[in-house]
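Our platform keeps sequence and structure together, in a single record for each protein. This encoding replaces a full spatial description with a residue-level series of whole-number codes. We quote a single record here, exactly as it is kept in our systems:
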Amino acid sequence: MKLDTICVQGGWQPKNGEPRMPPIVQSTTFKYASSDEMAKLFALEKAGYFYTRLQNPTNDIVAAKITQLEGGYAGMLTSSGQSANFFAVFNIAGAGDHVVASSALYGGTSNLFTVTMAKMGISFTLLPPHSSEEEIAAAIRPNTKCLFGEVLSNPSLDVLDIEAWAHCAHAHGLPLIVDNTFPTPINCRPIAFGADIVTHSTTKYMDGHAVQVGGAIVDSGNFDWMAHKEKFPGLCEPDESYHGVVYTERFGKGAYILKCVAQMMRDLGSCAAPMNAFFLNMGLESLHLRVARHCSNAQRIAEFLESLPEVSWVNYPGLASSPQHALAQKYLPKGSSGVISFGLKGGRARAVRFMDALRLVAIATHVADARTCILHPASHTHQQLTDEQLAAAGVPPDMIRLSIGIEDCDDLIDDLKQALNA
């Protein structure tokens, strides 16, 4: 199936007499006829459901659709994008290990890595997203377990050179993990460019209606863990917390996701709610239509903003003037996203007055849904970062993040005009 069809019918092909829409299995537990059957489930000797924290039929249907969209081998849902990124890294890195990541990250991800996971004994080296392969290689240590980046960073809109990062990772026996939240698989399929594991905040475009918080992890199945088994004992050596199972031996290409479910989700929770998965699936059905409209609206509004004397700068990969334009043409030829960042002459004070004067565009923490919204990252999403960290993340103090929705573009432009005049 092509992507548009997967959005609508992927993950769930009902049999005769079954519901056309994936059912909501709103149950924590599942009944079995014998103790032996249940024992086999707990021993990972048999596939099935016994507790929704680990697996649930509704969640698995939606995870399968996202896996199909990304061209992956196996996938899972989590309760948020934050938990997806945490699980993706923590599944292969622990105390005493090291990760190389792009510095152009969402503020919450940056804090997760450099503060919370640092307290767990995992160190991170953050590099500019456009670092050369030599610079990336120089940052890799003997205890490095993976490379990490955002395909299109939030909110700096840097485009990651996926092939360069993947080539460097693989040359050192490491997987590349990328967050593909902003492009979605409609605009970019990172696995095709060499990424090994893909994460999402499904709260954003995949849902598209701001009704559920969720995350997803997709494994390509391409990385050969056993070829570098000394680096990944959690996958390649017996897990004594699960009867000595060796995930790579038992589950082959499914080892990474199976360990993430059996160990990470078992011990840390952060499972998706079946009702949220149902809402997410409804959003996925129109993803291919909405993303195209987000991108066309954003392109027009970025060009409009670039023409205004009141605007000091505009950052949108679709603009020919953007330093990201060449990489965007390579990785995001159908469009990057609906997110634009720009600055007004007059700095932070004028930005606040402008935002307060908007009528149709709402000031909201959220981004990437059907309704247009706006915020000031240095004051809102990234306020926990120092000025130096803001600069490293590509977030200048005057930056305004504008997330363009799917409304009529003329109405949005009229609102921006009246707010600037006000």
